[in-house]
Amino acid sequence: MAVQNFDMPLADTETEVLIVGGGPVGLTARALLERWGVRVLLVEKHRQLSPFPRSRLVNVRSMEIFRQLGLDATITAAAFAPEYGRIRFRDTLYDRDFATAAMVGINAPVPESPVLGVVTSQDRLEPTLLAAADAPVRFGVELTDLIEEADSVVALLVDRDTGDATRVRARYVLAADGANSTVRQLLGIGTTGPGELGGVTTVVFDADLHRWCARQPAGVYFTAHGSFLPLYPEGGWAWFAPTPEDPARADWPGLVSRALGPGAEVRAEVLRVQQWVMNAFVAERFRRGRILLAGDCAHAIPIIGGLGMNAGVADAHNLCWKLAGVLQGWAGPSLLETYETERHPVADRTLRQAVANTQLLLQVQNRRRDQLQSGEAAPAQAELPWSEEYFAQLGLVLGVAYHSDAVLNDDAVLSVAPVLNDDGAPPGPSDSGTDYVPTTEPGHRMPHLWLRPDSSTLDTVGERFTLLTPDPARWERQAIATTPWPLGIEALPREHSDFCGLRPHGALLVRPDGHIAARWRDRPPNDAVLRRALTAITGSTCR
Questions:
Q1: Shortest CA distance to 117 belongs to which of 145, 148, 82, 87?
Q2: What is the C-alpha to C-alpha distance for residues 227 and 238, in angstroms, rounded to an integer?
Q3: CA atoms within 13 A on the CB side of 143
Q4: Contact 51, 272 (CB under 8 A)
Q5: What pLDDT shows up at residue 7?
Q6: For residue 10, what pLDDT band results from cuts at 50, 70 and 90?
Q7: How many Cα atoms are found within 13 Å in the side-chain-facing hemisphere of 473?
Q8: What digits encode the pLDDT tens for the residues 392-438?
Q9: pTM score, two decimals?
């Protein structure tokens, strides 16, 4: 592959990974890679972080990742209280709820995770992610072209203020530059899915809405006249609605005031307005050579259900340890092939779930509108077409299972073959987004179990592989022979052995992203099994 629209002189600077895009996904990848000791440069074409709320939900899985980075407490402190983890349906904002649903894992703790997700605005989250690493960031710098060579990629970067051009040579490029990705377009990677769903306008405004919302807090209020969202614990609101035909001439304060309802008698002070397009697609490929796509660049997910940004954070978590392994020599280049193998099916499933969310939401609103327009007495409470867990999607958030060469069969000695269905295809994730059943089958996220007060099994992973076993002494000799792989051994309390499917001398090998790479139910079958497993999982040539 080569995208050659410029002459190729020597690069002005070099880095190991060039991240394109400074949203939550790019910033998370920057922090994760820096923890691994990888040299990173991030470029963002906008001159500053986004001033708009945009994504609103940090789910429990993303918060587990942020806990790994030591950011969970900071993010939670700037977020709404748990009682805002709820959606409410009203005819107008000042009417009573005719339906409501909890965001499970947001409104109250769940036993399946050591953390609680939060409702927070993206413009509150991004500064925390930016401060989480010291790797250089260049705002107002746009990638305009790139070329891949045998062992690197050279990118042409242009300063949007001065017009100065810089050439950066990177071992890999991580594209997180959004749904309208320049990188994806330069590579000629197509997309599948519905595409553009319609234009949406976000209006950020101030108004005193306390008397209608303080006693019934929510992360979002869906009304017949658009959606209203509290922005920050100290105040501020956003209104989401379809973009009018002539937005340049729109009376935004008047539109917001009318959307609040005829009896509201509230005048909104409009602060910012943004028009954007809601997209729904998945890229046909997540990788071309040394260039990898993540976040909205790889999959644009409709906002209903809060799945999009969180899927992108999980992309970064899956990819960054693999990039570190290849760059540091303890993994082979083939490990990067498992990124698309593992994340593309998740993106497909996430898109299907978000489209289903949108359809169910419209079903509720349309039914209510029809009742009101027909003169039919609308019930004080409407029956929702989903369960209480629907908008948390714990099965999709925590129950993702990977099937690739980076996951070994149960009790594997040398096998690197992924688990297959009878038809020879990898089994897909469960179709249910709401149900989550913890399991230690290889490929699944390691279940949360308390090892000691305030220390979860999920806290043992990060910048290393982790061997969890009720018998650390038996596996210690094997661990000594696992150079150069980063590996730690953690004692698993025996009361968890049965749940994990382990006998007294068994073990779980957990990847740095918290997914189980291998499980040996009993004692190691030979003295080299752990080294051979790591060799197979990472595609390494180390012997």
A1: 82
A2: 8
A3: 32
A4: yes
A5: 56
A6: low
A7: 1
A8: 478 888 999 999 999 998 766 543 334 443 333 334 444 445 678 99
A9: 0.92
Distance separating alpha carbons of residues 313 and 325, to the nearest angstrom: 19
Query: What's phi and psi for 259, nearest 5 deg?
Result: -65, -30
Let me know if 297 is exposed, middle or buried by CB neighbors in 10 A (0-12, 13-18, 19+).
buried
Tell me the pLDDT tens digit for each residue of 299-331. 999 988 888 999 999 999 999 999 999 999 999
Residue type, 120: T
d(CA 83, CA 33) in angstroms, rounded, equals 34
Q: Is the Cβ–Cβ distance between 5 and 39 less than 8 Å?
A: no
pLDDT digit string, tens, across residues 378-398: 666 666 655 454 554 788 889
User: Rg of the Cα trace of the chain?
Assistant: 24
Q: What whole-number distance in Å separates Cα of residue 155 and Cα of residue 499?
A: 49
CA distance 20 to 27: 10
Q: How many whole angstroms separate alpha carbon 489 and alpha carbon 315?
A: 26
Contact 104, 87 (CB under 8 A): no
Cα(478)–Cα(28) distance, integer angstroms: 33
DSSP state of 219: S
Q: What's the token pair of residue 131?
A: 């401060």
Is-contact 513 317, C-beta < 8 A? yes
Closest CA to 239 of 278, 274, 197: 274
Q: What digits encode the pLDDT tens for the residues 73-95?
A: 999 999 999 999 999 999 889 88
Q: Which pLDDT does position 383 carry in this prediction?
A: 64
Q: Is the peptide bond before 385 cis (omega within 30 degrees of 0)?
A: no
Q: Is 217 helix (H, G, I), strand (E, B) or coil?
A: coil
Quick one: average pLDDT of 231-250? 92
Bridge-based pairing state of the strands 287-288 and 291-293: antiparallel
Tokens at 199, concatenated: 């234009």
